[in-house]
Amino acid sequence: MKFVLGKSTTDILEITSSILFYAEKEAFSGVNKIADKVRRDIELVTDVYPNKIDDKENLGKYTVIYGTIGYSPILDELNNKKLINLSVLDGKREVYLFQLVESPLPGVECALVIAGGDKRGTIYGLFHLSELMGVSPLVDWSGVHPAKKAEVVLDKSCQIISKEPSVKYRGIFINDEWPAFGNWAKKNFGGINAECYEHVFELILRHKGNYLWPAMWASDFNLDGPGLKSAELADELGIVMSTSHHEPCMRSGEEYGKVRGKDSIYGDTWDFQSNREGIIRFWEDGLKRNKDFENVITMGMRGESDTAIMQNATLEENIQLVRDVLQVQNNLIKENVNTNLDQVPRQIVLFTEVEEFFYGNENTPGLIGDPELDGITLMLSDNNHGYTRTLPTEKMREHKGGYGMYYHMDMHGGAHSYQWVGSTYIPKVWEQMSMAYDYGVRDIWVVNVGDIGTQEFGISYFLNLAYDMEAMGATNPNNTVDFTKKWVEQQFKGAFEQKDLDDIALIMEKYTLMCERRKHEIMNDKVYHSVHFGEAENLLNESNWVINRCNDLKEKCPEYVYPGFYELIFYTAVGTANLMKTWVLASRNALYARQNRMEANLLADEISKCIAYDRSITEELHTLDNHKFYGFGLSEHFGFTQWCEDDNKYPLRIYAEPANHPRIIVAKSDSEQYNIGKHWIGNRMKFDDFLRPDVDSIQLEIACGSKEPIQYRITTECPWLNFSKDLGETSVKDIVKVSVDRSKLKGKEEGIFYVEGSDDAKVIITVEADKPDLSSYEPMTFVEYDGYIAMEADHYAAKGAAGGADFVKLSPYGRTGVAMKVYPSAADFMEAEERPWLEYHFVTNKDGIYDVAFYMAPSTPVDNEQNMYIGTQINEGAVNINNTVWDTSTRYFTSHQWGQEAHNTIKIYNKKMECKKGVNVLRFYNVSPNISLERIVLHAEAVKLLESYLGPKESFFCK
Amino acid sequence: MKFVLGKSTTDILEITSSILFYAEKEAFSGVNKIADKVRRDIELVTDVYPNKIDDKENLGKYTVIYGTIGYSPILDELNNKKLINLSVLDGKREVYLFQLVESPLPGVECALVIAGGDKRGTIYGLFHLSELMGVSPLVDWSGVHPAKKAEVVLDKSCQIISKEPSVKYRGIFINDEWPAFGNWAKKNFGGINAECYEHVFELILRHKGNYLWPAMWASDFNLDGPGLKSAELADELGIVMSTSHHEPCMRSGEEYGKVRGKDSIYGDTWDFQSNREGIIRFWEDGLKRNKDFENVITMGMRGESDTAIMQNATLEENIQLVRDVLQVQNNLIKENVNTNLDQVPRQIVLFTEVEEFFYGNENTPGLIGDPELDGITLMLSDNNHGYTRTLPTEKMREHKGGYGMYYHMDMHGGAHSYQWVGSTYIPKVWEQMSMAYDYGVRDIWVVNVGDIGTQEFGISYFLNLAYDMEAMGATNPNNTVDFTKKWVEQQFKGAFEQKDLDDIALIMEKYTLMCERRKHEIMNDKVYHSVHFGEAENLLNESNWVINRCNDLKEKCPEYVYPGFYELIFYTAVGTANLMKTWVLASRNALYARQNRMEANLLADEISKCIAYDRSITEELHTLDNHKFYGFGLSEHFGFTQWCEDDNKYPLRIYAEPANHPRIIVAKSDSEQYNIGKHWIGNRMKFDDFLRPDVDSIQLEIACGSKEPIQYRITTECPWLNFSKDLGETSVKDIVKVSVDRSKLKGKEEGIFYVEGSDDAKVIITVEADKPDLSSYEPMTFVEYDGYIAMEADHYAAKGAAGGADFVKLSPYGRTGVAMKVYPSAADFMEAEERPWLEYHFVTNKDGIYDVAFYMAPSTPVDNEQNMYIGTQINEGAVNINNTVWDTSTRYFTSHQWGQEAHNTIKIYNKKMECKKGVNVLRFYNVSPNISLERIVLHAEAVKLLESYLGPKESFFCK
């Protein structure tokens, strides 16, 4: 086994076991600690644990030299010798130089030099070596060990000067940490202490993050280290600590409860008016305690336990109170931390009521522009569900201190909680966060990741994006498929063959898309229609594919990545797919039970098995690898009926009693209608599927509703109807494919077939079929069948740019895979004369009013005015500009519309439009920013569209 | 063992085994056959089978002499000797003289003389002897054997001259006879033949009926005897045969199918226009064949299989066609049966479209008054559900031929079928049929009794009523409780002790009331609300009482009445109660499953058991007594979803998955609201039951929703609240009685109690209580609580008569036990100045508009104008006259209102009325006939009344 630093035709450097790390005494202790981790990484890859020395005189033939400008004599020496050029790092944050240097020092044939412009630059540089060796940033956290290598080769081409991160502070928020994170920490480290946090810090740093809001539900970062140990360690390792949105002055929300009291110097009320002195002292002591560490200090004040600061007061009183608080806090910081406030990173989070205090209203000016906010980063936030809320207007972007974003990948709150396994759909993260960046939100990005465990994929994407907007930002849409592939390879390259790696990426895409469509917690048997448009069937098939493929992969999975595979992929994906499947089965169980199908009873049994399976895979997660992941599956995840898990309910299992006489139940697979073939109650059915030119077959179900199995026979004299089967017996159900032979059709025709069955049942089925001549229509012309026209947004017939902006196709994106959105994303066309547009062509069967539904991403207004306008135009009609916001008199966030859109992950704007028989032209104009059009569905006013979640299947269109 | 004919202090006649029946040669053979049956009855009672002799010279010391005037020399002789007086029978139908005569003939010490004025008079007289001995009219049919007696005593007091029956033809219709009656006959007699019919005839005769419409679904009375045997036997035994409403000229509907054909002399089309000659010949041959028997000939014509006679024709064309048919038929009868048409009993049934032909419409005069109808009994009918439809107006009553009624106790048709066990609620039969009688419907009463089996109780009542209107008619309301007791004693006196007999009567009342409220077939889990107002709980308790009591009685039941007990009582009552129970369990199962109560799963298991029990009691019915009742349980009876049994569905069984953490579920027994005691989703409840002065306690349920059992503790500081239990643990549920101690109340107060449970659950319950001073209110003043006022009709404060008519309380009657109806029933007050009224007093809490619902029996308009008016008046307001018919433009029968009322057995008329705070006076005026007021329920417009089937519990009223 050997470790090779560099190899090229002209210049090969081989180091066997003799490789050394030079751990300078002058280096940051944190940097040396990171170097130790990198040495461990080398051991994981090569089985050789490199030594370190601190004696410059005895450096080895092959040495890794690392350090930070200003804290490394050896770097200065090499720089002075012009062997390296440190000046490239000047004035930049968190950058490093990474290069091979031949014979830099006596006795050293070749050195790998990692020079950081600052502490974190060095650390990122060190971890860059791990990455180059194929070590995952999750090596420690998720236990995905790298594949062993006989040799690791670096040649001169490895030389880089790293980029400066795009966003200044990039981090995570551990939140809602019980029962998962808390139990995990307790089991593995005895508590949420420094030992535990070391892993969190490492996770962040390996992802080139730098920022953390620590857990705060029932723990105190500054007390539980024990003591300040966690804070000290964070500072040592270069983690910038902050606190959550409602915990000012580096003290956690829980801390006050511990020190308050009748006789306490801090008083006994969390009230800035009645206990001003006590509160100020409380804050001051927090600032004093943590002033030596690298922090971003939270400013402002809220009520206890994340509630509003002052109830029953006017807006003006509230604003004045917050202004007072800010003044006091700024003064405390000047007195205790740094007289130059500009050198003290501070933030205020414009969350819930604070947002209103910031903007004010018509009568009351808000805090916006207040000098006390000067230099404070204004933290905006998303709508709890991954869509940004207000973003800075052009004018606001001038604010000194800039803007941050508090984003959610986990939520314990409204509109609904989602706290189980990672459910982040990264195309949305890209779309929303790249837009936020374009709007100037560039100073702090912090993401609530709940318990961290199982959220790693989303964390990776978020921190990567924050680090490198040049490569992954708005100029590079649709980068998530590539990212996913690379991420999967980062974890498992070498452990699986390429086909399997590709499938793992697909699994991640599929399962997170399931979550994007509907979060685990609020999935239930009523979400997807059990049969209409096959949407439940598709989900079932996808779920089964994920479950089966994951189980195949699990079988193959090498032991050294097994824990990571299980936690990152298997548990999240299979857990999700199994949950979705369970609800689909429940939905069918309910429908089929109501129809008296005996199949219902098998489904009920299967539901039980699915629930048991959910428990068993959680059990494996919790015991795996010496309970490394214990607790991460503990969150309730089935059947939320409230905003949180209280009173959640698993699916019901419904059993039907068999009929006393043989009963045949005939139905199309995608329809709730069924027929038992009894004359007196009506034994006729009519199918018109074959009127649609691209439908050649339909699926017929012949199900048993009785104790006794049923026999059936299918007969017809229709020459153009074929059946995959025409005779059978079943005690559950048979599926018969009924297909049309259009070559035998003369035009629009009706055929009849009969399903005769036990107990003299006879179902008489009329089938309409057509082979229309569509040659007169232009390509991309949709044709109405089945009473509706459904068009995916990217199937426009034409589009037009305006004002330097144009629609861009986003894919994968949204519930149904695609959307059209205008870039640059901050462009607003409300006042513009020309606007970007999309044009759709479709043929309707009749003149008349049509109900048109525009399906859009459930985004929220970017301004504080509750406006999201779209423009629409039918045929030669006028362009209508409509606000998609239902009620502009109430704040969008927490509005009914917000809640509904958050549940369904879709914004649907309905409009009546007058269509004419024949070809119609529908234009969609971009007006307000932040609109992503996914689909358009229309149907004649009198037609009642079948219920569904995702909407009807796309209609046929001419190609 | 001895048989004693007569015994008194002065005059005792003892006959031991030597008793003789004198079977005169001159007697009707049928009469002698009946005498044989009576001899068998004597044997059943005494174990002695009396001999018969036909030799007048050797009559025994004690002889039963029976005969029919004109066919009995011995009666003539006794009459001539003035030993009896036959003249009392002169000119009367179906009467008999029944008396003891001392030494009537040489060698005869004492004779029992039974002298009939006609054949049926004699037969009824003979069976009168059986009845006096305690032999049930069901002795043969249901196998209820009489108790053995050491002696049977008749003394002079037994002498009677029987009354003339009130209704001329009194009979039944065997209909919808598959699968039950048909299988029964096939199993026991090889078919629906003379052997089978003999039992039917006996059943009718023993009930003093005389009339039959035979089975006609797939059988021919005149062909299957074999041959004419059934018809001959009917005639011999004095049964007047007829045919159902659409089978003219004594030929069954099926017959034509057997003789039609290309080359048939009857042609091949059931069409009076295109095959006039063939049809006429068909009818003529029928008339010739059956002319020697006693018949009521059905006139008119309908289409095949009970459909309209002529589709696609105008009303006038149809009427003309029917007129033509009648003329032809009358002529055929004159030619082939009797030239004097007045001597030929004929009927026409005004069913479905024929009703319209009879009445005509605005533009087209109907058949009414047509000379061809002269002498033909016009058969009216009920609405398929036991409520008469049009009744003869005063003018119509002059029609020569009179009126008949085709009534239903079994239905295969709309609004819904009911064909399983007897479900007739006899108070309704009394109310509707006594009214029909008062309206002049006195010539024919025929009741569709489906399969006969299990319908015996209803048959008995119907035929008794038809026989004796003097004793049981309109002048004697509320006779059904007595009737039921007597009927039970008729079957089981001696077999059970009196308490048990009383309970059997109660069982019959209770189970038929269940059916009255909702027929078996259309009962389901959505009918009664699972918890509101305890209506489902009450039904469950009633059902359990019936099931348990019947099983006790079954244990005790002597073998000699066991078959009858099982068929008449046990199977019908337990079958009903078990069915009702099953659905109540299903309703609760669904509710509790949705609440995640583990109790739901036990209920689901119990539903399975109930369904199995239904099957097992049916199995016993079918095998009992050498399959005597085989088939009578075969009709589908669970979960009709259509008008007939096709696609019927048993209840679903729903299983809930236990929650992962201990979950306490707190609810009031009568409320769907529940609370799991979790702060973040709301853990407060409020109960206001104690505001109602007559409510002292409420029932609290503490249920388990989790795998683990739950512990709970109830605490309070409220001095006036008491708990039957304040600590417990359960894995299903505990019931805690919460009671108020009003002596500790100061007035209206609020108390709080806490239910604390596992997993830190805490439910905070506020209880309102009051002890209002109601002394200022008059007796019979209702007081609003719980948002509504519900008043039973008989709890009026005052009432007034008018025009010789007054409200009479009917009880038991209707869904909730009582109704008020005006008698004489044919009185119409539409044009009257004074109308009978009822006055209700109630106190409301607020001024304002109230929704007032008048609950009435689901009767139908007696005229052909779709009018059923009621009058209402609130306080000093005007009297409003409103039509309770929703849509007067359509025929009531088959209207939507008819269907809904038939399902729910209630007519609800809603009206908005302005009430004032304080005492209000509401008057209800009788306007149209046939209205029975059951309840009045009102609530403020803004109050949403809790869902229920029977409506809210009656409100508190001052006594």
Structural notes for this entry:
The structure is a homodimer of 959-residue chains. The first copy, chain A, has 959 residues and is an alpha/beta fold. In chain A, 29% of the residues lie in helices and 22% in strands. Chain A has 19 helices and 38 strands. In chain A, the strands form 7 sheets. In chain A, strands 11-10-9-16-15-14-13-12 form an 8-stranded parallel β-sheet, covered by helices on one side. In chain A, α15 packs antiparallel against α16 (535-556) and α17 packs antiparallel against α18 (599-627). Chain A is globular and about 95 Å long. The interface between A and B is medium-sized, with 29 and 29 residues. β17 (653-655) of chain A pairs antiparallel with β17 (653-655) of chain B.
